[in-house]
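hey team, just a heads up i'm posting the complex here instead of the shared drive bc the drive is being weird again. everything in one block, sequence lines first with there labels, then the predicted structure for the whole assembly after. its two chains so it's a bit long, scroll down
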Amino acid sequence: MGKNHIISLETKEGHEYLIKLNTIEPSVIPADIAVPVIDVTIELVNDVPVTNNAGTLFAIAVSIKEYLMQNNAVLYCYCDSAPIQKRNPDLLNQAYRSLLFVKMFEKQNSDDFLNEKIIIEDPVNGNHYIHLFAKKQNKYAIDLIAAELLRFNK
Amino acid sequence: MMLSRCCIKYVLVCSCMFLYVLVCSCMFLYNFFISLHYMKTNTLHIKNPSEKLLQFVRKLAADKEATKKELREKAHLYFPKKK
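-- predicted structure starts here --
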């Protein structure tokens, strides 16, 4: 892993979030990708009894979008399975996080960005959900990463 | 005379209400189609992953957990306790 950048964010309700943007070592990504690939981790670091709302989601989306506006990069987000408050208890935690990512970026109403959702079925650990976000001009990088995953699948 | 004034007022009020409903409908349809046009999420669904791919994504999951743990440990640096 390479360069790190951490954004701190506190909501009106008192939720404290840290968003870590970590540049993935170029040696582990396909060589044809000319832009950095950034691993995004969002973590709630305190306990607040108040349930999260759309405002929080919007604030996180704005922070990530600002980063993407200032940096020519592809963002990679792995949706983990840690417990999360959710409306639909039947949905896996990682599937719910994936849904939040989709909503978060659709709320931005921007046609400058692409969102690629990757679902990999895992009968043992539960399905894996990955999101790749990038400006439209970097669609080739998203396609190359997806192709690399498919190559791994052979 | 009085009756015709009432009729004109009635027609004006109805017209305004109609225009209001029309404008609201247009705004709704505009936002709806704009949201359809804007960023779409494409999905790649791998249903029968190879063992190699599964091992790779399971490592991604473990890495993510380690990063989240690290963030929780560093939280006090970014959010000092309020007095």
